[in-house]
Amino acid sequence: MLKCYSRPLLPKRILASFPVHENIYTIPNILTFSRLIAAPIIGYLTIHEQHVAALVLFIYAGATDLVDGWIARKWNLQTVVGTVIDPMADKTLMTVLTVSLAMKGAMPLSLAALILGRDVLLSIAAVYYRYISLPPPKTLARYWDFSLPSAEVHPTGISKVNTALQLGLIGWTMSTMAVGGDLGWWGPEGALKAMWYVFATRAPPIS
């Protein structure tokens, strides 16, 4: 779920005082980008049954998710692009691991389809709000220039909790795979699958 805030309409003399471009090369953004890069690597390791390495990299991704926001707030390094790529990195990691775990039979296909379908809706919403809040002229080059501020994307509290729980369950699943646990639907991990369904459906896509 996303809440998006566009800049209020202000007189041109006030708008002129705002920077046209913002510095996107900050430590929090670099950490977030590293999490984006790590996502497909974790998926690759999971598919090729390198479960320990995948789990270690997943823990790194989770640590950067905690640290980047703390650094941004403590040293006043918040950027508009940071509010966009941070939830994007979370959803990318969720999507890649959902597909990977489903391919390995660690997640029911119906559940994977539910999670992916909701994330597609979130992605479409993010693309739409980026476009409508981009200062004119609206060109493709300017759309992908993330140093140009646009609407700030803020996940709601429920969305943050839901994402944290889902990532926690992914970590639990990966930990079980790393130690060679039985992930059969009717095996001892059946309770884990039930929890997957609960947390995948506990919140609506967008509010």
Features:
disordered N terminus, 207 residues, 4% strand, 2 strands, mainly alpha, 8 helices, two-stranded antiparallel ribbon, disordered C terminus
**By helix and strand content, what is the structural category?**
mainly alpha
Q: Main β-sheet: number of strands, strand sense, barrel status?
A: 2 strands, antiparallel
The proportion of strand residues reads under 5%
What is the 3D form?
globular
Q: Helical amount among residues, as a percent range? A: 55-70%
- Measured between the Cα atoms of the first and last residue, the distance is 5 Å
Strand order across the biggest sheet? 1-2
The number of strands is 2
Would you list the SSEs in sequence order as H and E? Answer: EHHHHHHEHH
Mean pLDDT: 76
The parts where pLDDT drops under 50 for at least 5 residues are 1-18, 203-207
Count of helices? 8
In angstroms, what is the radius of gyration? 19 Å
